Amino acid sequence: MIISCILSIILLLLVVYGFWSSYRILNLPLKTKEMIMEWENQNPAFDYKWFESLEKEKITVTSPFGYKLAGFFIPAKQKTDKTIIFCHGITVSHVSSVKYAKMFYERGWNLLLYDHRRHGLSGGKMTTYGFFEKHDLKTVVDYIKKRFSHDAVIGIHGESMGAAIALQYAGMDDGASFYIVDCPYSNLWEQLSLRISEDYHLSGFPFMYITGLFIRIISKFRISDVNPLKDVEKINNPVLFIHGGADVYVPTYMSRQMYERKKGSKALYLVPEAGHARSIHMNPEEYEKKVFEFVEKALNNNTLS
């Protein structure tokens, strides 16, 4: 009787944990614009006043899942069919992408900054770390192709979760001319296991398995399905992997793994002292130089290695 009660209590606690952990992962608290601005204003490359001064068009496209994706299209100073799409990280919004936008605008690119599902001005429920978001990104890419032409030059720049979304999209469709992925995770199961261990001091077994079960029940996807490390094997177009050497949130080795796994045209840029999503913060000039060395070679079909 006592053993039965103990087992029942343990089971109840595991169920409670499953609901709590899965809900938290799928619904991380979002940062307000003010919070994002406070953080990004520490970055010398971030210039929101410049962004506000630009002529911009608010756009909405409909996700394949029915909700609206909101963003801003900024035409280049001179007419062009070259467009760079920015994918922000988790809990923030298109505002975080502004720090990467100016370097492209100054070189004659159209800009498209949009908010992922459940973030910023977009609709949708639950963050799925790229499982559904990759289809949203395809919708955005298709919008640009329809606006210009199927042969338009399109680049995608992603940060953190946005970088992982870009890789998952590329592994599915590979519809952009090149991809710049800054501090992406290579495997969601491994990334969440790391966070559960470091943030809550819990072991992967049984806690990750319980979390994974509840995520599958609630959101209809498996954590193991979010695996950019496998997706890079399917990408033919050039990829620049960027990562901070002092990143303790998404370990640097994840970009190294994906770089090694990626076949064909690729490049790797590591910033030794940079933390998570802080590579451009450490040296904006060098970051810009590395990015456009990559872009020039990628668009001219030069070999990258």
Describe the structure.
- This protein is an alpha/beta fold.
- It has 2 domains: 1-30 and 188-223, no CATH class; 31-187 and 226-299, Rossmann fold.
- Helix content is 45%, strand content 16%.
- It contains 12 helices and 8 strands.
- The protein has helices at residues 2-26, 33-40, 48-53, 98-105, 133-147, 161-172, 188-200, 204-219, 228-231, 253-261, 279-282, 284-299, and strands spanning 57-62, 68-74, 82-87, 110-114, 153-159, 178-182, 239-244, 266-271.
- Helix 10 (253-261) links the parallel strand 7 (239-244) and strand 8.
- Helix 5 packs across helix 6 (161-172).
- The protein starts with a helix and ends in a 6-residue tail after the last helix.
Architecture blueprint of SSEs:
Layout: H1 2-26, H2 33-40, H3 48-53, E1 57-62, E2 68-74, E3 82-87, H4 98-105, E4 110-114, H5 133-147, E5 153-159, H6 161-172, E6 178-182, H7 188-200, H8 204-219, H9 228-231, E7 239-244, H10 253-261, E8 266-271, H11 279-282, H12 284-299
Parallel strand pairs: 3-4, 3-5, 5-6, 6-7, 7-8
Antiparallel strand pairs: 1-2, 2-4
Helix pairs in contact: 1-8, 5-6
